[in-house]
TrEMBL record, chain A:
CDD domains hit by this protein: TM_PBP2
The protein's name in its UniProt record: ABC transporter permease
PROSITE patterns cross-referenced by the UniProt entry: ABC_TM1 (PS50928)
Regions that span the bilayer: 36-57, 114-139, 151-172, 178-197, 232-261, 281-304
Lineage per the UniProt record: Bacteria, Bacillati, Actinomycetota, Actinomycetes, Kitasatosporales
Family the entry assigns: Belongs to the binding-protein-dependent transport system permease family.
Gene Ontology CC terms: plasma membrane
The species this protein was found in: Streptomyces guryensis
Annotated compartments: Cell membrane
Protein keywords: Cell membrane, Membrane, Transmembrane, Transmembrane helix, Transport
Region of interest (Disordered), ranges: 322-341
Automatic annotation (TrEMBL), chain B:
Name this polypeptide is given: ABC transporter permease
Transmembrane listed as a keyword: yes
A GO term from the CC aspect: plasma membrane
Compartments, record wording: Cell membrane
UniProt keywords, alphabetically: Cell membrane, Membrane, Transmembrane, Transmembrane helix, Transport
Topology in membrane: Multi-pass membrane protein
GO BP terms in the entry: transmembrane transport
Domain ABC transmembrane type-1: 113-322
Record organism: Streptomyces guryensis
Length: 368, 332
């Protein structure tokens, strides 16, 4: 997914502290009203379940993802699975892999584990790095801020896929590959979230309750932990929710290119590498991982949209555009005045032009 | 205007610094790794003598910062390599020598660059047309069934990894329907018709996945502009709806689209790498993947710098264009 768009969408999510975002209950109530997000959440829950229960499910089938079954492929015909529909049978629910005869269902289920685990781990790395750098930049002195902000700028400017590809070249292959992929995706894509967190922290810092804490002699660390972090939750969660599907796509892409997760560890992207050769003999070898990727990324994206809407009521009004009734327009205009004031506060402090821009883009989206 | 010139200058400086930072990171990460750099650079099949020779050519006895400085020097003014028996000149911009393929990195890149440029530029034209067109249409038809269909399509486009789109299109269009031949690259100067014909599917694939973002952004931007006062005034004057949407509103909505176009360039380049590998187009992306797989360090470093150059350049140009197009941007 596009970094730029994610940034633009996440930037506005909490730049204005959500009034009365006093907790999870309000969030759930807002999330529940969105039917698409609920369906997506159910799909995601199912995927997580499959991933967690992969060993159980494959034990039920009586297979595992790495055992070769040479007797199930026709070596005379280049390794095409024997039997109809790519070798689907009671023993092999979705057929077997061409050439190797490995069980397709098992590889798909274990592939879900790899996809989700790598994406979640990468997102965690991005969030941790981004929050630490962003808060430190906002609370540190001028030099710290300059240094960290420049670093974030540079990270944002780097072409993510290319950097990840290049970095994968030099790490010895003995290093566990999924961990490596997660770390690398995490380390090349924390810039945007750091910028969002920095901008949000600068806004929060000026609020009365933070000033009060400072005046009562709280340490910077305590203020950051007790007063600032809760206010950062909304934009960070929004961004993270949008980054998970993006990270899944990146992992799949790297593995598809043959440099990400390597065999025998199964991965959806990796399964697609040679799928186009076999699509006539075993179409499910292509369609299953492709479909799995599509459904997963789609569900996570819709869920991410829902999470954003639930955390940011202003975005909600944007999503339900349509009638353009007078009352809506007026309400939107009032919100704009507020957000203008807010964005001026932010703009006067935020130096990097990109953040100003993404705020612009965001406020454009919000206004509509 | 001086404010603007200053802004442009600062932005250019920023781009140069970013590029330098990328080069430092890449260089240090690659050439300060534990392990025998000379052996890795030379390749697994090198004899100890060859490895020794490579170590001398890379001046591995020098400290890292000095080697980096030589590397930069090579890019700016060129470099001479002694290969033991003869001295080879590597003219600026010299990105080093690939010992595994026995070629200069700059030469490798120059032979691959036309393919990648053909792919990305052609696709960019398509994705702007498709994305902006879809966005305008769905803003215009908002609330109707056609808008819902377009929004759904857009979401599907965003959710499908580009190589999956390409795989499916290739199988259906080239394999089953045989509407197009399987993609191949023919040089533009050799045969323009074959060039376009062979690249049609790769263009379309890359454009489809990028257009989805532009459709989303254009729609949002259009809806905002359509709600502005001057549009209402136009409407009151009796300007037709078509001209209102197609001309007046689109003009106001273009600024963020310009910005995204370049900011998204990096992800488009990533997509191009996938597409080149998928369709077997001999471009920079395919070469980079190959170099990563065989750990040809000089090539990887050179490729990353060249790609980084284009991405950073695109970002800088976008920022400046954006500032020109939208005066509301605060110049900092």
């Amino acid at each position: 997914m596009s970094e730029a768009l994610v940034a633009a969408e996440a930037a506005g999510a909490g730049v204005e502290p959500v009034p009365g975002a006093s907790g999870a209950r309000q969030f759930w109530r807002r999330l529940r009203t969105q039917r698409a997000a609920l369906v997506a959440a159910a799909v995601v829950a199912l995927l997580v379940l499959v991933a967690l229960a992969a060993p159980l499910l494959t034990a039920l089938e009586g297979q595992d993802p790495t055992t070769y079954h040479p007797s199930l492929v026709d070596s005379a015909r280049g390794g095409v699975p024997i039997g109809s529909f790519g070798g689907i049978s009671g023993d092999h629910w979705l057929g077997v892999e061409p050439q190797t005869g490995r069980d397709l269902f098992a590889r798909l289920a274990y592939g879900a584990r790899v996809s989700l685990a790598v994406a979640l781990a990468a997102t965690t790395v991005q969030v941790l790095l981004g929050v630490v750098v962003g808060v430190a930049a906002a609370l540190g002195n001028r030099w710290v801020d300059q240094l960290l902000s420049r670093a974030a700028d540079i990270i944002v400017a780097m072409p993510l896929m290319i950097m990840a590809l290049a970095l994968l070249a030099i790490v010895p292959s003995s290093f566990p590959r999924p961990v490596l992929v997660a770390l690398i995706i995490g380390f090349v894509a924390w810039g945007t979230i750091a910028k969002i967190v920095r901008a949000q922290t600068l806004t929060l810092k000026e609020l009365d309750y933070v000033a009060a804490a400072r005046l009562s002699g709280w340490s910077t660390w305590r203020i950051a932990r007790r007063e600032l972090l809760p206010g950062l939750a909304a934009p960070v969660i929004t961004y993270a929710a949008l980054m998970v599907p993006a990270n899944i796509a990146i992992e799949a892409a790297l593995s598809f290119l043959g440099v990400g997760v390597k065999p025998p560890t199964p991965s959806w992207g990796q399964m697609l590498t040679s799928a186009n050769v076999w699509y006539q003999a075993a179409p499910q070898y292509l369609l299953l991982p492709a479909g799995a990727l599509f459904v997963t990324v789609l569900a996570l994206t819709v869920l991410g949209d829902g999470v954003r809407t639930a955390l940011d009521p202003r975005a909600a009004s944007r999503l339900r555009v349509g009638t353009g009734s007078k009352r809506e327009a007026k309400a939107a205009a009032e919100k704009d005045v507020q957000s203008d004031v807010q964005s001026k506060v932010v703009q006067s402090k935020v130096v990097p032009s990109k953040v100003v821009q993404s705020k612009e883009v965001q406020s454009k989206e919000v206004q509509s | 205007m001086s404010g603007f010139a200053g802004f442009a200058l600062r932005r250019a400086m920023g781009a140069v610094i970013t590029l330098l930072a990328i080069s430092v990171i890449i260089y240090v990460v690659f050439y300060a790794t534990p392990g025998n750099v000379a052996q890795i650079t030379c390749g697994p099949r090198c004899s100890p003598e060859q490895v020794h020779q490579v170590a001398q050519q890379l001046k591995l006895d020098d400290p890292l910062y000095l080697r980096y400085w030589h590397f930069l020097e090579g890019i700016v003014v060129g470099q001479d390599y002694s290969t033991g028996t003869s001295v080879e000149h590597c003219s600026a911009p010299c990105l080093g020598q690939s010992y595994q393929s026995d070629q200069q990195v700059t030469q490798i890149i120059l032979t691959k660059l036309p393919v990648s440029l053909s792919l990305v530029v052609g696709a960019m034209v398509l994705w702007l047309l498709m994305g902006v067109g879809t966005g305008v249409l769905s803003a215009w038809r908002r609330g109707r069934i056609s808008e819902r269909a377009l929004t759904g399509l857009t979401l599907a486009g965003i959710s499908t990894p580009v190589f999956v789109i390409g795989l499916l299109l290739m199988i259906v269009i080239c394999g089953q329907l045989e509407l197009l031949p399987f993609p191949e690259y023919v040089s533009l100067t050799d045969d323009p018709e074959q060039w376009a014909w062979g690249l049609l599917l790769p263009w379309f694939t890359l454009a489809l996945s990028e257009a989805a973002y532009f459709a989303r952004l254009t729609r949002a931007s259009m809806l905002e502009t359509l709600a502005e006062d001057h549009i209402r005034t136009f409407r009151a004057y009796g300007v037709g709806e078509r001209s209102l949407v197609g001309r007046h509103a689109l003009r106001g909505a273009l600024a963020p689209i310009i910005a995204l176009n370049a900011n998204d360039f990096g992800s488009a380049v990533g997509g191009a790498v996938l597409i080149e590998s998928l369709f077997g187009l001999p471009g920079i992306g395919q070469e980079l993947v190959h170099a990563v797989n065989v750990v040809d360090l000089p090539v990887v470093v050179g490729m990353v710098l060249v790609i980084g150059f284009f991405v950073v350049l695109a970002n800088a140009v976008a920022d400046v264009l954006y500032a020109v197009a939208d005066r509301r941007v605060v110049l900092t």
